[in-house]
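Give me the fold.
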Amino acid sequence: MLRYRAGDAAAFTVLYERHKGALFRYFTRQTGKSAVAEELFQDVWTNVIRARERYEVRAKFSTWLYSLAHNRLVDHYRRNASGVPLAYDDDPDEPLLEQVADAEFREPDNELERRRLGKRLLQALDTLPAAQREVFLLREEGDLSLEEIAAVTGINLEAAKSRLRYALMKLRRELTAETETRRARIQDRT
């Protein structure tokens, strides 16, 4: 970004190529609508271009980029009078689950199962409260640390940790239930 600020147009291309996929997926999974995601995505890159001369290094570029994305998403929710959804049904007594998918699905010979599980994961993401989904996506798509997520979303570090923990627990629960149901159906057939 510093090279782009100094007038190196090719540097923008590098930034765009490096971050376009994850940023677009972030918006698509947050809004559930490709057209809305495209609009927000374009707005963020337009803001990057506009901010070129004022850009100052205060954090990693990705943190700054996702701050712009988060703010644009909040503006979108406000403009559509739906507000930023912050519904929670968290259970603070449940333990932290480090992984969403079972280890058996990471074996190379289970490609078809991985694809099915990936599709199911996307469906499960839609069931998360928006605040938890956003933290999960910032972590997974934006590759941001918890500290960076807290800075981007304007919450404290503990809230970011809690939201991620609850998102992982719910996703794990959804995927585990799906897997158990599928296994039971297979056993019934045999």
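Residues 40 and 72 are 7 Å apart (CA to CA).
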